[in-house]
Amino acid sequence: MMYSEAIDYLYAQLPVFHRIGAKALKPGLDNILKLCEYLGNPQEKFRTIHVGGTNGKGSSSHLLAAVLQSAGYKTGLYTSPHLKSFTERIRVDGFPMPDAEVAHFVETHKAFIEDLKPSFFEVTVGMAFDYFARQNVDLAVVEVGLGGRLDSTNIITPLVSLITNIGWDHSDILGDSLQKIAYEKAGIIKPGVPVVISEYDAETYPVFKNRAEECGSDILIGSDFYKVTDLGIHADGRHFSLEPYDGGKFELSLALLGTYQLRNVAGVLSVLKVLSTPYILNNSIAEEFKAKLSESAVQAGFAKVVELTGLKGRWQILQQNPTVICDTAHNEPGILSVLESLQTVSYQQLHLVVGFVKDKDLSKVIRLFPKGARFYFCQPDIPRALDAEVLAEAFRAEGFAGDVFPDVNQALEAAKSRANPADCILVTGSTYVVAELNQLEA
């Protein structure tokens, strides 16, 4: 079986969330447990860090992987969705899973897959765990797909869990209040496994605290341990000062340029602290991590995260004159964070290329955008896409003006043709819109 045949088979035969939404979800963990049992329970053959949350979980996963790689660990990284290639989801030391490995997995296990009838996501999780085990990784960073409690990744028992933040997204699936959403995210907290919450929030923290107490798990708030202050963009990335709670002050560089990325720093560093703290983890494990997780490994991981892990689509500058930026922000807190980063950019006129999927609550998102921008409405080429005409009408009803285009590349070309060198063009609204950008390197 060729790689292209394997991918076509997965998309054609299995329900895929990013294409059809909630209908693709298989309730419960039965399928992934059966699949992994059939595969020999590969998830038990390597150590893991589990990362969940509404926004920032992908970037935090990449940052953790980059630091661990810099410390000399053979590191697996599982994230979703992908932007250009399916193999981006499954990496070892930054290298995507080879096409031939994907094809071999599908061909070898096709009969079992057809009998089990799992979702696309369940198969990718099983594939990742199997690949990491066969590659003998020292540690894998595993990003939650959706929610946490019933997510297919939630069959691992990690060394530590990280929950980045809680915001409005997928409320039709996870619940109609932040507390209900937090309850689903808190489902990744395991008995006796420490959990880090990146940012304190009075509305959702009690949910995490209660779950941690039920599990007998230590709970730490990243922002209690580290104060992070933005120092602006320099030639080598976004600089920030770091003040640990126990004293000292340091300056670090981060390859991820969005100001919102700084909110992930305290959580990531707190996870690393947990790994190297004997009274929280098993003494021998903590001493091992303490010896390897040096200050230089942290500095290198932060400064080279894009190079080391292949992260893209997060406040990524595609060109200058005019400045073209893309960001995968796709919900209210994500859009708010991107617009916050936009305030640090100098420009004459702002051009916004936007597209969304159907299941987003536009009423909460539209009001966030600046009225003075020129809009270019588009849609991704997936069944879940919100029709660009419908999107445009929703914006126009709120007093915004703009033109409609069939896809993101035509929208971007129109924006570039109308923009002056001093202008800024931002492409955002959906991971799947950003994924279709021709300018985003494969």
Automatic annotation (TrEMBL):
Q: What's one Pfam family the UniProt record gives for this protein?
A: Mur_ligase_C
Identify the Gene3D superfamilies for this entry.
Mur ligase, C-terminal domain (3.90.190.20), Mur-like, catalytic domain (3.40.1190.10)
Quickly give the catalysed reaction: (6S)-5,6,7,8-tetrahydrofolyl-(gamma-L-Glu)(n) + L-glutamate + ATP = (6S)-5,6,7,8-tetrahydrofolyl-(gamma-L-Glu)(n+1) + ADP + phosphate + H(+); 7,8-dihydropteroate + L-glutamate + ATP = 7,8-dihydrofolate + ADP + phosphate + H(+); 10-formyltetrahydrofolyl-(gamma-L-Glu)(n) + L-glutamate + ATP = 10-formyltetrahydrofolyl-(gamma-L-Glu)(n+1) + ADP + phosphate + H(+); (6R)-5,10-methylenetetrahydrofolyl-(gamma-L-Glu)(n) + L-glutamate + ATP = (6R)-5,10-methylenetetrahydrofolyl-(gamma-L-Glu)(n+1) + ADP + phosphate + H(+)
Enzyme's top EC category = ligase
Question: Has keyword Cell membrane?
Answer: no
SUPFAM superfamilies recorded = MurD-like peptide ligases, catalytic domain, MurD-like peptide ligases, peptide-binding domain
> What EC number(s) is this enzyme filed under?
6.3.2.12, 6.3.2.17
* Pathway involvement of the protein, from the record: Cofactor biosynthesis; tetrahydrofolate biosynthesis; 7,8-dihydrofolate from 2-amino-4-hydroxy-6-hydroxymethyl-7,8-dihydropteridine diphosphate and 4-aminobenzoate: step 2/2; Cofactor biosynthesis; tetrahydrofolylpolyglutamate biosynthesis
**Any one GO biological process:** folic acid biosynthetic process
User: Which molecular function terms from Gene Ontology are attached?
Assistant: ATP binding; dihydrofolate synthase activity; metal ion binding; tetrahydrofolylpolyglutamate synthase activity
Q: Name one GO cellular component term.
A: cytoplasm
Which InterPro entries does this entry report, sorted A to Z?
Answer: Folylpolyglutamate_synth, Folylpolyglutamate_synth_CS, Mur-like_cat_sf, Mur_ligase_C, Mur_ligase_C_dom_sf, Mur_ligase_cen
- What job does this protein perform? Functions in two distinct reactions of the de novo folate biosynthetic pathway. Catalyzes the addition of a glutamate residue to dihydropteroate (7,8-dihydropteroate or H2Pte) to form dihydrofolate (7,8-dihydrofolate monoglutamate or H2Pte-Glu). Also catalyzes successive additions of L-glutamate to tetrahydrofolate or 10-formyltetrahydrofolate or 5,10-methylenetetrahydrofolate, leading to folylpolyglutamate derivatives.
User: Which family is annotated?
Assistant: Belongs to the folylpolyglutamate synthase family.
* Protein name, per record: Dihydrofolate synthase/folylpolyglutamate synthase
Q: Which organism is it from?
A: Larkinella punicea
